[in-house]
């Protein structure tokens, strides 16, 4: 066993970790500067001039999607709670079929920059845009919080900074860098950071996976045996260690599974990526690339999770600074010493940086395009004003992310991200599906579904054990956990679908049928879809 | 390059009778072909996923059955989810390239040709 006992001392060399991360920042900064020279219009800033290929965008989607939750959170969850951690991977992956089959191409054909473009296409612009922008901002905020919570845990583990002030300084530096990337690079810069990060992350995970398997004679079965031996608990191979303890826990597991599989196709920052390619066919190719990269990566995490359980042991991981989130870095140290730890740590930081950048540009685009340009300026902003507002929003959101990150506690990041998925699936998915596929759907249905889904998901979370009532809650002292489920999906998602239906059938007014015809024809044929910007 | 970039921000909408296109047999075929693939396939995938989640939740004994060495049913079914996801992805791309894209391209080109012809007859002043 390695000396992790002293809390908040790094097992590696903090200066080495900083140097490797610094090199990553320097290289990506140069690329971002070079890529951003053509950032002139809103199309450039939000959608990278729609000039990325399907393969490039697929890698960027993987880079955007394989967040700290996937890497640190899932490896940690498998290492500590065994098989139940793997459910996250499966849900996160199968979810892409919803995006591929129902959403990606149709969305690319009908929208310009944001999710609200599609949702408000044939409904009343103003109320629907405001609602869609609200849900976008809330989902991005939840997701941001999860990423920054991961950053906090990493800092304490990697840099040996135990005190809150020191960690706060590091989170501020990471947040400041992110603001710089997004401010200068826009979507183009963000995309390149994500592509580079996806390459590094998947390569790093591949190396560690082969290494772990090599130690175990290239037998997955032997690896599982060793994991059981170190953990001293054969139950880590079976489902139910975390979610099998009671009937409520089983229901919670179902709720989580539902949120994971239905959340992806409703995540605003994922949807926005489909606008960075020139056509629906390229959007389809991006999803295919993303599915392969993400699927292979999740198979790696299964090996890495059990590898961490076998080589370090669940108890040592849970006791390390950063808790379960530190399983992957600790495994890297166990395998390759300080150098591999430094590399994996830099990749993990890069992961957080890239995902936070993607979230920030999505939130900024939503505010500037949907609220400022479309609602406040009624679709006619002065030349250049929209991008200016977007840039200012980036700074504001960056500061909120930094404050949230400093305040966020040591919850498992995969779990926090699952809440973001639940909110997205409840607030956005019903309206996306209805407006693409249900002719009769009306503005009232959209508003009821979006606000109803959003409010029910958030109220259920607020009244759940996540927020109060247990020692691991956000407010451990208080006790108002009326709802026993820690993931709201199983209630709020069906409710939002129901409200969308109910609001529509009770609505006596109908929407403009010509708009419905236009949307349907455009979504399937690509007539009048936004073209790539020629530079 | 600057002008093109600016013009891209305000694309002039095509003057198209979308209702007529929507009613056309060609478009109805495209719509039917699309829906009759994506709805059942996605439904089946979600049902398969739900079955997996329910098994993991309520059939612990079955999921714990060792199959190869220490590799149990739960591992195999989890990996099977990954495999089916890859397979459905490949299947859909194949289907879309072969069946959807030709139909969509035909309708799109027809609309664009009609719109171009209409703008010529209406004169350049439009």
TrEMBL record, chain A:
GO terms for cellular component: plasma membrane. Its main location: membrane. It is found in: Cell membrane. The keyword Membrane applies. Signal peptide: none annotated. This is Cation/acetate symporter. It comes from Agromyces ramosus. It is a multi-pass membrane protein.
TrEMBL record, chain B:
The chain crosses the membrane at residues 37-59, 71-93. It holds the Pfam family DUF485. Keywords: Membrane, Transmembrane, Transmembrane helix. InterPro entries: DUF485. It comes from the Bacteria. This is Uncharacterized membrane protein (DUF485 family).
């Amino acid at each position: 066993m390695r000396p992790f006992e002293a809390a908040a001392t790094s097992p590696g060399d903090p200066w080495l970790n900083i140097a490797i991360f610094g090199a990553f920042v320097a290289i990506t900064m140069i690329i971002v500067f070079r890529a951003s020279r053509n950032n002139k219009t809103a199309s450039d800033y939000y959608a990278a001039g729609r000039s990325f290929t399907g393969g490039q965008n697929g890698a960027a989607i993987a880079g955007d999607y394989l967040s700290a939750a996937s890497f640190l959170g899932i490896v940690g969850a498998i290492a500590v709670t065994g098989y139940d951690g793997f459910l996250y991977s499966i849900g996160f992956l199968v979810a892409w079929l919803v995006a591929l089959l129902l959403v990606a191409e149709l969305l690319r054909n009908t929208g310009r920059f944001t999710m609200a473009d599609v949702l408000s296409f044939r409904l009343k612009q103003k109320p629907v845009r405001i609602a869609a922008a609200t849900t976008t901002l809330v989902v991005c905020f939840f997701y941001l919080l999860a990423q920054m919570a991961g950053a906090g845990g990493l800092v304490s583990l990697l840099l040996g900074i135990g005190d809150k002030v020191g960690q706060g300084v590091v989170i501020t530096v990471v947040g400041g860098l992110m603001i710089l990337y997004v401010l200068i690079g826009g979507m183009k810069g963000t995309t390149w950071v994500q592509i580079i990060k996806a390459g590094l992350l998947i390569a790093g995970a591949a190396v560690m996976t082969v290494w772990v398997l090599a130690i175990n004679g290239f037998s997955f079965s032997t690896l599982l045996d060793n994991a059981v031996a170190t953990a001293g608990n054969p139950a880590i191979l079976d489902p139910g260690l975390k979610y099998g303890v009671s009937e409520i826990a089983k229901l919670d597991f179902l709720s989580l599974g539902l949120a994971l599989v239905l959340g992806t196709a409703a995540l605003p920052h994922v949807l926005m990526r489909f606008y960075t390619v020139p056509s629906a066919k390229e959007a389809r190719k991006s999803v295919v690339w993303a599915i392969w990269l993400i699927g292979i990566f999740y198979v790696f995490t299964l090996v890495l999770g059990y590898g961490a359980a076998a080589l370090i042991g669940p108890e040592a991981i849970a006791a390390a600074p950063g808790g379960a989130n530190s399983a992957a870095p600790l495994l890297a140290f166990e395998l390759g010493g300080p150098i591999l730890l430094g590399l994996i740590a830099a990749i993990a930081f890069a992961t957080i940086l890239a995902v936070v950048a993607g979230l920030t540009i999505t939130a900024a685009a939503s505010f500037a395009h949907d609220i400022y340009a479309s609602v406040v300026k009624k679709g006619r902003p002065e030349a250049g004003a929209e991008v200016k507002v977007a840039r200012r929003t980036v700074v504001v959101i960056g500061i909120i992310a930094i404050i949230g990150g400093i305040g966020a506690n040591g919850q498992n990041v995969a779990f926090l991200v699952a809440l973001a998925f639940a909110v997205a699936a409840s607030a956005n998915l019903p309206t996306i599906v209805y407006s693409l596929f249900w002719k009769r759907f009306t503005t009232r249905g959209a508003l009821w579904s979006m606000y109803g889904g959003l409010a029910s998901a958030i109220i259920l979370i607020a009244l759940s054990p996540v927020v109060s009532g247990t020692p691991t809650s956000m407010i451990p002292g208080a006790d108002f956990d009326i709802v026993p489920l820690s993931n709201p999906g199983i209630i709020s998602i069906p409710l939002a679908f129901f409200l969308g239906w109910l609001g529509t059938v009770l609505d006596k007014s109908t929407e403009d049928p010509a708009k419905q015809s236009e949307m349907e024809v455009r979504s399937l044929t690509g007539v009048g879809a936004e073209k790539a910007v020629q530079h | 390059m600057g002008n093109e970039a600016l013009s891209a921000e305000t694309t002039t909408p095509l003057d198209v009778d979308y209702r007529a296109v929507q009613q056309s047999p060609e478009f109805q075929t495209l719509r039917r072909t699309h829906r009759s693939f994506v709805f059942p396939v996605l439904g089946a995938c979600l049902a398969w996923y739900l079955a997996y989640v329910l098994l993991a939740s309520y059939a612990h004994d079955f999921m714990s059955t060792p199959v190869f060495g220490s590799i149990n049913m739960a591992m195999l079914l989890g990996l099977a989810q990954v495999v089916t996801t890859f397979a459905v992805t490949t299947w859909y791309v194949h289907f879309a390239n072969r069946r959807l894209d030709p139909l969509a391209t035909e309708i799109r080109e027809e609309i664009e040709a009609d719109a171009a012809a209409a703008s010529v007859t209406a004169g350049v002043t439009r």
